[in-house]
Automatic annotation (TrEMBL), chain A:
The lineage of its organism: Archaea, Methanobacteriati, Methanobacteriota, Stenosarchaea group, Halobacteria. It is found in: Cell membrane. It catalyses: fluoride(in) = fluoride(out). The chain crosses the membrane at residues 29-46, 53-75, 81-104, 116-140. Keywords: Cell membrane, Ion channel, Ion transport, Membrane, Metal-binding, Sodium, Transmembrane, Transmembrane helix, Transport. Fluoride-specific ion channel. Important for reducing fluoride concentration in the cell, thus reducing its toxicity. Na(+) is not transported, but it plays an essential structural role and its presence is essential for fluoride channel function. It is a multi-pass membrane protein. Na(+) binds at residues 91, 94. This is Fluoride-specific ion channel FluC. GO terms for molecular function: fluoride channel activity; metal ion binding. The keyword Ribosomal protein does not apply. It comes from Halobaculum gomorrense.
UniProtKB/TrEMBL annotation, chain B:
It catalyses: fluoride(in) = fluoride(out). Keywords: Cell membrane, Ion channel, Ion transport, Membrane, Transmembrane, Transmembrane helix, Transport. This is Fluoride-specific ion channel FluC. GO terms for cellular component: plasma membrane. GO terms for molecular function: fluoride channel activity. It is found in: Cell membrane. It comes from Halobaculum gomorrense.
Amino acid sequence: MIATAAVALGGAVVALASVATLATVPDPALVALGGAVGAVARHLLGSAVDRDAFPLGTLTVNVLGSFLLGLLVFWPVGGDALLLAGTGACGAFTTFSSFSVSTVRLWERGDRGRAALFVAGNTLLAGAAVGLAAVVAAAAGPPGAA
Amino acid sequence: MSRDSQTLTLGLVALGGAAGASARHAVGGALPGLWGTLAANGSGSLLLGFLLYEALRTDRLGDRTRTLLATGVLSSYTTYSTFIVETTRAEPLVGAAYLFGSYALGFGAALVGRDFAARVDPREGREVRA
């Protein structure tokens, strides 16, 4: 289930980003389409790994989505593909509002250690994922160079 | 969950995701640089705090409404990936201020949303906002 959702998201992002005729699609439609794909992928993956005791689903989508957006930004993919896969899909796949509300919920129900772990985990793992994406993008070379 | 209701859920999430991402893009177009993401993340945390605490206090919000608005619209309207990429690419001092400022705003906004839900609904029973 988790693997399926992750592969589906990765495949969708790569496929969408590699479409060469995006220029014919209006920008708002690119963002909306990417947003729909990202939200569905987040729901599938997040509900598969989330736990009552800890919002592991939100942490997972935030780290994975940050890595994917990092790849797009550092590779770099620009213009319409970035609107579709970055602003739309990765933007919607990851979530700051669930992060904020989950942290507050953990804290006020007394799970302060878990709240701190959740905030630190999101920050450090997503930050590391962006760093890793920069390394991978640099190693891959610019688009089309291969 | 039946196949039909699973399909409906995914449809609501997709619809909400399209609307939320579009709204975030519009906010980003109206406000320069980091301010657009900050505004979307802060306002989205406020609204999600209100929505989820309202749902906890009462059962007024049905599952489908929550799926559309919380999982679909608000979760997509806010973004962690753009936030963290912007943080790592900013000048160190700006990045640190953006990181901690976003967290303070997000947590504060979620608390304000929670308190607003309590004010709208001071009792367990139904009390419609004027």
